[in-house]
Amino acid sequence: xxxxxxxxxxxxxxxxxxxxxxxxxxxxxxxxxxxxxxxxxxxxxxxxxxxxxxxxxxxxxxxxxxxxxxxxxxxxxxxxxxxxxxxxxxxxxxxxxxxxxxxxxxxxxxxxxxxxxxxxxxxxxxxxxxxxxxxxxxxxxxxxxxxxxxxxxxxxxxxxxxxxxxxxxxxxxxxxxxxxxxxxxxxxxxxxxxxxxxxxxxxxxxxxxxxxxxxxxxxxxxxxxxxxxxxxxxxxxxxxxxxxxxxxxxxxxxxxxxxxxxxxxxxxxxxxxxxxxxxxxxxxxxxxxxxxxxxxxxxxxxxxxxxxxxxxxxxxxxxxxxxxxxxxxxxxxxxxxxxxxxxxxxxxxxxxxxxxxxxxxxxxxxxxxxxxxxxxxxxxxxxxxxxxxxxxxxxxxxxxxxxxxxxxxxxxxxxxxxxxxxxxxxxxxxxxxxxxxx
Length: 438
Description:
The chain contains 18 helices and 14 strands. By secondary structure, the chain is an alpha/beta fold. The strands form 3 sheets. Strands 3-2-1-4-5-6 form a 6-stranded parallel sheet, with helices on both faces. A 6-stranded parallel sheet has the order 11-10-9-12-13-14. The chain has a two-stranded parallel ribbon with strand order 7-8. It is elongated. The longest helix has 32 residues. It has 2 domains: 197 residues, NAD(P)-binding Rossmann-like Domain (Rossmann fold, 3-Layer(aba) Sandwich); 233 residues, Rossmann fold (3-Layer(aba) Sandwich), CATH 3.40.50.
């Protein structure tokens, strides 16, 4: 079986490498000639644990290759995946489908014999039908089917998510397409992975509904954390008490400065727009979007309050910039709202992140980066923890205090024990936990 993956970004590259690991011949296509040249040389443009080794070993085995020639890749493929970006469109929050439509036109012109075209990108309901119409209009003689196969990859754990998924969702009305995708995912049969076959529209909505629900869980526990602060309860115990209920589960019940990344922000906005257009507004998700935006701004106030209400002239060490650990992705990271606001208020920012500093410097004007967490803490009037990298968990409270000019730590990820920080003589402000400050 031969697969062409149109788009060699995060989803396309991870999916292409994992399909190659299944033993399939995969060609990853991208218009960025520089990216393709780097990939051909074994240079991975994104940070994802284990991806570099997976790409190199499958390229060396001849199962994975890279090209800018879409027509050649498509003409030889049995299955063509569309894995291009669908960013939020400015002004209305709808997913920008221009890259999807462009890919459909180019694919249509290159089809040779029966080909299955699959949307792997996250797209609004109805996109698969649009792709089919575009292909048919561009190439009336084309023999093809269109299917939806949404991805559920977590950055930092994407390879495991692909190889050991909770489920595989396939949206198609075609028995031939269903059989072909069943063959492609056959290696997962050994794990007894459920494959859910649905209509195109249902598969597209499953992806948005999933991300919106997870974003809602995050927002809910963030609001519970604020309530805990007000009434003296401990949000960690609240989350544990909730999570032990099998109907709820413990995942995504971790308070913090708000969700970010490439999926939740744009997918919740897109779902809101789709629902409004259908005349069935999802007000719960609308509230989630609004609450998450407001939370990032509220965290700035929390930091200022910890430093007696004023940050002007103060040196603040920032630990973590990416939206989550084990990635270099800065998209929609809370740091992009919090750090510029502190700089604008007159603070000097010294930041460290294991993987995200180059991108952060490009996005945040006036950001001073450091070579280590210790450098970021040295001489600081306060420390703010924005990302829960494991290396930050290993910091000793006594060492934190010794490095700083003033022992104030604002921990927006609740990495430390309030009792341990208090014992070390640190003014410790976290999220939703009692007796966190001295």
